[in-house]
């Protein structure tokens, strides 16, 4: 034991005794022995001695004094303690703990043993921000439910409504918790309720833990106390805190590991953390240990500095014993600013003030007198858990601590204890949060914890009951907001007592309050908690107090003079605050008021809401008129009131009148919401333009889908309620007065508006009428069911535009409180959607933009459900209303229902709920009728400032009135009244139906003296009197809306209070009128003599442009009156609307019908049909002619537009063969001597000449597409497991690389470089749009681009530009060679020379050195374009020679460019030439020009005639052995190893241009013999020994026949015989035979093999011939491709037509005797295989059948990719990348933007795009599901190839719905890659600066 003690002492420090040098294993043994000894001692029944011994040991080991002191005093001390960071002592202490816990055994075995006792009923996995988790709405009970990926995939969620999401704040897996989710959704691991079969934990297993852990945790707490220093006032101290936390990392991690051991260990930890006794013993600080005392003092200081007191024990502390009474918050009279909360620490207040620099807007502080302070200020810790949480908060929630505290939650006992502790610290959390500099991170961590605690209803209820959770939360919220109050300037600036939050403060601007609000919303979602809240009057009062802080915040004042200098953006903070802090809790409460039994709650809320409103009106000193030019969009109290009213009527069957206040209060209530509606109209009329853009932003946010049902909807509803209960005349006049258009409503043609500029009048009038229409026709809260509302919302959105599923979900205003139960994507949403809309699947135009799947309204929706009122209410942008009308018009035209420009249709409304019947009185009040009459009259008389929109709304209102008229009035009663009754007023009664027919004769008007009305003589007084007595009514009085309103208001007030005269101040309205404007008005009397009906009929004439156009329909068809709903009237323009109204008026009363008929008779006396006079005919003809001319003009314009459009399409289109602009203008006769080119810049045309060359606009790009061809058909898949890996061995590029390096090992370098082609990777591809320009024009064009300051998507310095005509991307100009394009026909005449002569000519022509042509402009351009071509690709793709910079390199590179372009064209044609010349690739090819440039440069490098392969092909060499004699020099490459296509290009490019056709044919014939021989050799190597001997035999028999040289059997047997002389066939190990397929070689299969072997060469050659000589390619079937191409190339004599099957050998035309030359070729092979038989054989088997290149095949479901890659570590830096990406060409996994994998300033993706695609990379971004393309120095977002079930992309996986591959999109992507058209098709390119 002594040894152990000594070791412990050594561990703790002090002068180190020699034992410390003991080897570590010994020490460990000692620890183990000690631990075992102690465990034994403790297991005895009397374990006191053992316990004491253990305590002593722990005292020494776990001593907090030393190590952190070192940390605190900085480096020196740390160094003294043995290196920086936690000294060895700490690790030592941890080692001791582990040993002691394990009680002498191994720690790992101990962990395993404890785990065995884990009753894993819950998963409880805790994650931090950015973790990918799942949420299943089908299985979740709480909306916050989340699952880790593992549990999700192991459960069964098929067909459920789930999504994947990135955690913002962190969370924990709820699998196994039946409080939060349904058990059916548990995964396999957590389904079994496993507690039953887990054995009991043996006592001794965890015995040591119970002793050791308290000390360990106490030690940790001491470190935390020690490390915390109060931050100085000015310096934020995060650094120090983080340092402490880093030092404590191992300890906290150790605790975290313990929690992961499972349930058994957790319950021990719970005991330790919650045990009050051991906490008291250890931390009381009363012991003799000085250190412990000091530590306790630090703790007390920390408490104090947090503004908390440590109560003496005798103080009763509120939270522990719930106080009596309903609530600690029974607040007395909180009026205006007599606040109730304690002032915050003044010190921290002041410096915050200073930092804000608020100046004049001094914060308002509320004095405290009655609040229970204990909630805010008192904290007492009774257990480790409580103090641990305290420090966690103090240190601003370090992630590790949070994770540890959360990991414990599966333990039920702990969960309760921790929740209580959390609630107890709630106020403290808020204070820390407010001070924090990192409030965002901290908010996330707080919510991470609280969402785990408060989502559980049972727990929330328990804490509410035992710890006053609601009181605490409301108080804390109130307290928090009180710190940023300012005086409200609404209404009465000087005397206002109201205070509001200041939206400019950080608290609101940064949303610091959201954790607290979100907790509050969370607990209110539980019914039991919400009920307590709604029952508790004190709480409701406090809460209304809180809400009133937001009432009237962010006040806008209209700038009248100059533009506001600084546009504040605080408005968003205000909207967010109202939505989150007021509206969401409101929706939460409303969701519990759904049934009749909950009436009481509604009454409570309404009562306190009205009280708060009354206080507010008093505080702002409000009487009856709102202050001018101010508006606030924030009236949460009004909205609370409105929403609870609505709920009461809709769900609780409450009588509306029982919860309404008196009339005076209603009048006050309507003012501010009405003010907002008027201000909206003003803002849209640009009257607030000096306030900047932000005011428009507010108007938009107010109606925007996330806010509308918490803002505009309740406002309109409240106005509807007020309107249904107030006097209608008063209401209507208030509306027009608020909208400032009262002065406009006069019969006079001129008027003065004192409050509104003339230019705003029209739009304000439209605004007022539109508002009335909305007010009267909206039924959202007046009787529609939820499903009807959903349907109406959806129809409105779909009518504006086709929508994707996700945007619809976003646009339909759902209940902002997620717990309301209507979940988007719920059953009703989908069923309504399928009822009203059709799905349009996404379509793809090549080169077009990617479409998404869209929903579009069904025809019957347009027909019956299109509701313009709803559309106007829901549009954020005014243009959307227009868009809906345009779509409606298009529908009517298309379906033939109406050809012209229709008016918005009138839609029948759902019936009103009986409580709101009063609303319809608005339609039947004289005021409205006078307004309608006046407006109709003004429109008819064409007064200024009226519009079709005004008329439309007027008619709409009339129609509404007719639809909602009272019961039919009896005709007798109306006429009986006689003239006396209504002598002095406009209308007799208030019913619209009867008022419509009332004639108004004279009207007195006030007009300016200048008005035309004044000039007329008014009728003489006598006649006027007599007129008066004759007509049934005298002069209608001047009607003043304002006076009318005042009168009504006075009446109402008098009714309410006797001392009204004191209340109402006389209001003078000359406040706004210009001084001296009154006397210029004079009174005139107008003669009118119209009724509404007669005005309507005249209007019909006016609209139709014909006299007497209206004829009552019922006179012809009496049926109409019986069934009036005729579809004919449902769509149409104003004429239809008038007809519909007249018909309804006639239906409503017989009188009206009669009067309509009379008016029609009066206007149109029945006239006998008269003959048309000549003059009239003339005018009619004129009309007709004009009409026709107009139509013609329209037609021409339309045609012109469509032409222009089609030109634009052809110019912009990239991939369509039909629309090509021909590259050269060639005439039909082939004799043309010179090609003529058009310059697209200067527009001149002419030939290309030496000094003024023309060039083709080309794009040069390096390409590795060819290198991706593979020789097997099996597609490569993207790897989605560790086993699947992609190895690039079978790609074309790799095979060619291996071949070249093999040749270079054994043969002479310069010869090797002629034997192959390069450019499979990084080859240069040249493509053109086909447009030409003068090269000097191009240079000036580039100059102008360089000086252009506009931001371009390309880099002019790199020579990039866009074609001036078609805007296609390009980067070089390829000069056109002067001379003919279709080569002169004399070159094409077949010559009769023998092949031998031609061979000689070819040799001579090649021998001539190519003198470089004289220095002309053309040659300069040729040189510069060659330079461009070289610079297009990287050096590594050009230099293959062993001697750098050798000319052979350039030679190889140049002919390989030709090869690359031919091969790629072949691929674009689908890999064969069966389709003939009709392919797109051929149409715009620039190969002809390219060949001239290459040939010009290749002729500079003459090949020494010694080495020219041409000789080996066409001559027999005498001295065969000469080469072999020279041992040390490397031999030439044997001719049979040469690549024949490369030889072809070398031969042709070495010839002087232009080339003669017969020379070309000669070269092809010679090379075909070589190719055929290579095929025979390869065949002989592929087959086995028996086959060979059989062939050798059969061929030998036929050798002497006449056709021997053209028979493959003879040739094959000869080849086998020749090669048998060497060692080629000998050294076949058995393993070789395995690789070669055992084909039974029949004559057919042999023939097929040989044809396939040669076919590729024939294709390339035919393409070349097509481009050089302009001959068409023949089209053919696939099986006859060989014979067709060979006859096209002249290999087959044209007369060769045979019946028997085609034999490839018949194309052979040997220049010298076949057997001689073959044996010469075989001799070279034999001499090589003497030494290297293996390699010799490998080189002979060439693969010529490459399949087309493809991108990797992707899996069906995106999730498989995501799950594998998003956690995969990067192979370079072994971290999990933040933005992982994968290359779709080769499957490489890369970090996008990862700095860890950067190499010489290139990030990994850019680097990979250069290595894999020579500058083109296609990457799938794993976390975003989108594809990005990197092309050189630019990149673009291409889009996604994965779409969800609704055909939509999900960029950034925001919605997290399952995604499936869209094969069409992937094909488009692959097509663009293969055809190199990324640059042309994708428009949005940007530079990536190598940072991807």
List keywords for this structure.
about 50% helix; 6-stranded antiparallel β-sheet; 3-stranded antiparallel β-sheet; about 1900 residues; single chain; flat; 77 helices; alpha+beta
User: What's the total count of β strands?
Assistant: 29
Structural class, please?
Answer: alpha+beta
Beta-strand share of residues: 5-15%
Largest sheet: 6 strands, antiparallel
Rg of Cα set: 46 Å
Tell me the strand order in the biggest sheet: 23-22-24-25-26-29
Distance between the termini: 62 Å
Q: What's the total helix number?
A: 77
Structural shape: flat
> Could you list the spans in which at least 5 consecutive residues all have pLDDT below 50?
1-28, 67-86, 312-363, 365-371, 818-822, 968-984, 1015-1034, 1058-1079, 1165-1173, 1211-1232, 1381-1388, 1478-1482, ...
What is the residue-averaged pLDDT?
79
Portion of residues in helices?
A: 40-55%
């Amino acid at each position: 034991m002594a040894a152990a003690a000594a070791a412990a002492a050594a561990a703790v420090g002090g002068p180190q005794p020699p034992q410390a040098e003991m080897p570590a294993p010994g020490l460990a043994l000692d620890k183990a022995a000690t631990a075992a000894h102690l465990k034994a001692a403790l297991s005895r029944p009397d374990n006191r001695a053992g316990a004491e011994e253990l305590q002593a040991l722990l005292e020494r080991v776990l001593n907090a004094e030393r190590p952190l002191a070192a940390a605190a005093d900085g480096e020196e001390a740390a160094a003294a303690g043995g290196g920086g960071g936690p000294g060895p002592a700490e690790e030592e202490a941890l080692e001791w703990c582990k040993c002691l816990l394990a009680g002498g055994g191994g720690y790992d075995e101990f962990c395993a043993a404890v785990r065995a006792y884990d009753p894993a009923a819950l998963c409880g996995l805790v994650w931090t921000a950015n973790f990918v988790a799942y949420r299943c709405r089908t299985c979740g009970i709480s909306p916050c439910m989340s699952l880790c990926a593992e549990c999700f995939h192991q459960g069964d969620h098929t067909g459920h409504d789930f999504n994947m999401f990135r955690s913002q704040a962190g969370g924990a897996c709820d699998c196994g918790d039946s409080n939060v989710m349904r058990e059916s959704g548990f995964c396999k691991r957590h389904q079994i309720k496993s507690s039953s079969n887990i054995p009991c934990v043996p006592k001794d297993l965890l015995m040591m833990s119970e002793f050791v852990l308290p000390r360990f945790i106490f030690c940790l707490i001491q470190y935390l106390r020690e490390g915390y220093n109060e931050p100085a006032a000015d310096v934020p101290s995060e650094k120090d805190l983080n340092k402490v936390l880093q030092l404590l990392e191992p300890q906290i991690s150790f605790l975290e590991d313990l929690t992961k051991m499972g349930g058994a260990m957790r319950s021990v930890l719970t005991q330790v953390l919650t045990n009050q006794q051991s906490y008291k013993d250890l931390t009381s600080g009363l012991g003799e240990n000085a250190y412990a005392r000091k530590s306790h003092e630090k703790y007390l200081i920390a408490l104090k500095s947090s503004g908390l007191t440590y109560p003496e024990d005798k103080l009763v502390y509120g939270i522990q014993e719930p106080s009596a009474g309903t609530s600690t918050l029974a607040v007395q009279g909180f009026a205006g600013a007599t606040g109730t909360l304690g002032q915050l620490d003044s010190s921290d207040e002041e410096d915050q003030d200073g930092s804000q620099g608020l100046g004049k807007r001094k914060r308002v502080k509320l004095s405290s007198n009655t609040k229970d302070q204990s909630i805010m200020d008192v904290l007492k810790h009774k257990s480790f858990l409580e103090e641990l949480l305290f420090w966690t908060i103090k240190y601003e929630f370090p992630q590790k601590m949070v994770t540890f505290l959360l990991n414990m939650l599966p333990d039920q006992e702990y969960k309760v204890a921790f929740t209580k502790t959390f609630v107890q610290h709630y106020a403290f959390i808020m204070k820390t949060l407010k001070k924090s500099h990192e409030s965002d991170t901290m908010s996330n961590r707080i919510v991470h914890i609280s969402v785990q605690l408060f989502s559980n209803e049972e727990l929330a209820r328990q804490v509410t009951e035992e710890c006053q959770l609601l009181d605490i939360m409301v108080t804390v919220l109130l307290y928090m907001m009180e710190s940023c109050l300012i005086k409200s300037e609404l209404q009465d600036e000087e005397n206002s007592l109201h205070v509001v939050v200041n939206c400019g403060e950080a608290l609101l601007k940064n949303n610091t309050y959201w954790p607290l609000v979100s907790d509050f919303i969370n607990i209110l979602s539980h019914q039991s908690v919400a009920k307590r809240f709604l029952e508790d009057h004190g709480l409701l009062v406090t809460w209304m107090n809180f809400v009133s802080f937001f009432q009237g915040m962010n006040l806008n004042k209209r700038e009248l003079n100059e533009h506001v200098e600084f546009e504040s953006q605080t408005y968003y903070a205000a909207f967010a605050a109202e939505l989150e802090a007021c509206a969401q809790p409101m929706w939460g409460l409303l969701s519990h008021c759904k049934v009749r039994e909950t009436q009481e709650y509604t009454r409570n809320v309404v009562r306190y809401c009205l009280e708060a409103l009354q206080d507010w009106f008093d505080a702002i000193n409000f009487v009856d008129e709102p202050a001018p030019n101010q508006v606030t969009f924030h009236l949460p109290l009004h909205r609370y009131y409105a929403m609870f009213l609505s709920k009461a009527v809709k769900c609780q069957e409450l009588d509306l009148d029982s919860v309404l206040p008196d009339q005076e209060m209603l009048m006050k209530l309507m003012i501010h919401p009405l003010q907002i509606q008027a201000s909206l109209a003003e803002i849209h009329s640009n009257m607030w333009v000096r306030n900047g853009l932000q005011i428009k932003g507010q108007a938009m946010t107010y109606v925007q889908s996330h806010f509308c049902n918490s803002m505009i909807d309740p406002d309109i509803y409240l106005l509807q309620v007020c309107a249904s209960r107030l006097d209608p005349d008063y209401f209507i006049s208030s509306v027009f007065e608020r909208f400032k258009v009262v002065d406009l409503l006069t019969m006079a043609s001129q008027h003065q508006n004192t409050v509104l500029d003339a230019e705003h009048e029209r739009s304000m009038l439209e605004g007022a009428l539109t508002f009335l229409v909305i007010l009267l026709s909206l039924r959202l809260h007046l009787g529609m069911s939820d499903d009807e509302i959903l349907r109406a919302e959806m129809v409105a959105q779909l009518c504006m535009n086709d929508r994707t599923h996700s945007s619809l979900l976003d646009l339909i205003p759902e209940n902002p409180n997620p717990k309301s139960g209507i979940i988007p994507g719920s059953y009703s949403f989908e069923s309504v959607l399928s009822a009203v809309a059709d799905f349009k699947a996404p379509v793809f135009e090549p080169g077009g933009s990617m479409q998404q799947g869209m929903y579009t309204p069904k025809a019957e929706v347009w027909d019956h459900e299109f509701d313009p009122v709803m559309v106007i209410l829901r549009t954020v942008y005014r243009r959307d209303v227009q868009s809906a009308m345009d779509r409606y018009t298009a529908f009517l035209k298309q379906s033939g229902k109406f050809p012209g420009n229709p008016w918005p249709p009138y839609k029948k409304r759902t019936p009103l709920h009986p409580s709101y019947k009063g609303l319809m009185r608005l339609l039947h009040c004289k005021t409205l009728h006078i307004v309608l009459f006046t407006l109709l009259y003004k429109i008819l008389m064409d007064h200024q400032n009226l519009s079709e929109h005004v008329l439309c709304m007027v008619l709409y209102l009339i129609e509404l009135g007719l639809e909602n008229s009272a019961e039919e009035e009896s005709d007798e009663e109306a006429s009986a009244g006689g003239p006396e009754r209504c002598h002095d007023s406009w209308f007799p009664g208030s019913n619209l139906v009867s008022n419509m027919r009332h004639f108004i004769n004279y009207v007195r008007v006030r007009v300016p003296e200048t008005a035309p009305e004044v000039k007329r003589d008014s009728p003489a007084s006598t006649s006027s009197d007599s007129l008066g007595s004759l007509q049934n009514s005298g002069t209608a009085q001047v009607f003043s809306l304002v006076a009318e309103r005042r009168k009504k208001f006075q009446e109402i007030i008098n009714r309410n209070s006797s001392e009204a005269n004191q209340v109402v101040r006389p209001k003078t309205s000359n406040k706004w009128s210009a001084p001296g404007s009154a006397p210029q008005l004079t009174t005139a009397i107008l003669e009118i003599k119209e009724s509404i009906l007669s005005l309507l009929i005249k209007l019909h004439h006016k609209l139709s442009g014909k006299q007497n156009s209206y004829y009552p329909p019922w006179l012809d068809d009496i049926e109409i009156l019986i069934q009036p709903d005729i579809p004919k009237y449902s769509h149409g323009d104003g004429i239809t609307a008038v007809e519909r109204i007249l018909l309804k008026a006639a239906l409503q009363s017989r009188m009206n019908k009669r009067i309509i008929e009379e008016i029609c008779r009066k206007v149109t006396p029945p006239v006998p049909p008269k003959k048309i006079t000549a003059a009239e005919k003339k005018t009619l003809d004129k009309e007709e002619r004009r009409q026709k001319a107009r139509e013609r003009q329209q037609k021409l314009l339309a045609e012109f537009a469509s032409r222009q459009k089609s030109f634009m399409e052809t110019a912009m289109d990239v991939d369509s063969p039909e629309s090509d602009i021909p590259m050269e203008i060639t005439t039909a006769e082939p004799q043309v001597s010179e090609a003529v080119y058009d310059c697209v810049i200067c527009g001149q045309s002419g030939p290309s000449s030496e000094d003024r060359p023309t060039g083709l606009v080309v794009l040069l790009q390096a390409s590795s597409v060819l290198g991706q061809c593979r020789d097997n058909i099996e597609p490569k898949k993207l790897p989605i497991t560790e086993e699947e890996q992609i190895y690039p061995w079978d790609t074309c590029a790799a095979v060619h690389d291996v071949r070249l390096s093999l040749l270079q090992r054994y043969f002479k370098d310069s010869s090797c470089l002629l034997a192959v082609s390069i450019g499979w990777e990084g080859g240069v591809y040249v493509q053109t749009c086909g447009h030409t320009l003068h090269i000097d024009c191009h240079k000036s064009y580039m100059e102008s681009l360089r000086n252009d300051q506009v931001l371009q998507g390309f880099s002019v310095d790199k020579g990039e530009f866009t074609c001036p005509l078609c805007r296609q991307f390009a980067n070089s100009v390829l000069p056109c060679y002067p001379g003919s394009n279709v080569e002169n026909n004399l070159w094409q005449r077949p010559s009769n020379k023998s092949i031998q002569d031609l061979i000689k000519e070819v040799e001579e022509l090649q021998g001539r050195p190519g003198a470089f042509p004289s220095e002309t402009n053309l040659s300069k351009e040729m040189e510069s374009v060659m330079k461009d071509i070289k610079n297009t690709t990287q050096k590594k793709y050009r230099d293959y020679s062993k001697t750098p910079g050798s000319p052979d390199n350039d030679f190889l590179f140049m002919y390989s460019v030709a090869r690359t372009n031919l091969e790629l064209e072949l691929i674009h044609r689908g890999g064969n030439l069966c389709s003939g010349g009709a392919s797109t690739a051929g149409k715009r090819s620039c190969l002809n020009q390219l060949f001239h440039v290459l040939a010009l440069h290749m002729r500079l490098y003459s090949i020494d005639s010694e080495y020219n392969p041409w000789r080996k092909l066409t001559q027999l060499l005498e001295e065969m052995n000469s080469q072999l004699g020279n041992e040390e020099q490397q031999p030439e490459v044997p001719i049979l190893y040469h690549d024949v296509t490369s030889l072809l290009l070398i031969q042709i490019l070495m010839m002087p241009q232009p080339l003669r056709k017969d020379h070309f044919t000669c070269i092809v014939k010679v090379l075909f013999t070589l190719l055929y021989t290579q095929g025979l050799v390869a065949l002989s190597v592929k087959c086995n020994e028996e086959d060979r001997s059989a062939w050798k035999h059969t061929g030998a028999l036929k050798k002497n026949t006449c056709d021997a040289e053209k028979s493959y059997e003879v040739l094959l047997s000869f080849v086998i015989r020749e090669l048998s002389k060497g060692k080629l066939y000998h050294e076949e190990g058995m393993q070789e035979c395995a690789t070669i397929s055992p084909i039974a070689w029949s004559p057919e299969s042999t023939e097929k093999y040989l044809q396939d072997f040669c076919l590729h060469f024939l294709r390339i050659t035919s393409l070349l011939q097509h481009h050089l000589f302009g001959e068409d390619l023949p089209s053919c079937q696939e099986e006859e491709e060989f014979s067709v191409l060979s006859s096209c190339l002249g290999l087959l004599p044209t007369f060769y037509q045979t019946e028997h099957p085609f034999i490839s050998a018949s194309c052979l035309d040997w220049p010298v005797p076949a057997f001689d030359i073959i044996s010469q070729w075989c001799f070279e092979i034999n001499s090589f295989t003497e030494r290297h038989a293996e390699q010799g054989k490998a080189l002979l088997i060439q693969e010529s059948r490459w399949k087309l290149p493809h991108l990797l095949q992707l899996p069906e479901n995106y999730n498989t990719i995501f799950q594998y890659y998003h956690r995969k570590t990067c192979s370079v830096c072994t971290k999990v990348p933040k933005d992982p990406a994968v290359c779709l060409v080769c499957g490489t996994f890369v970090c996008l933007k990862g700095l860890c994998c950067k190499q010489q300033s290139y990030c990994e993706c850019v680097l990979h795009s250069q290595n894999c695609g020579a500058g083109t990379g296609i990457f799938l971004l794993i976390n975003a599901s989108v594809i990005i393309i990197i092309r050189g120095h630019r990149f673009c977002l291409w889009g996604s190839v994965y779409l969800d079930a609704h055909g939509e992309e999900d960029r950034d996986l925001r919605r997290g719905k399952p995604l499936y591959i869209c094969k069409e999109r992937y094909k488009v992507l692959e097509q663009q890659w293969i055809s190199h058209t990324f640059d042309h098709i994708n428009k949005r390119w940007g530079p990536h600066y190598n940072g991807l």
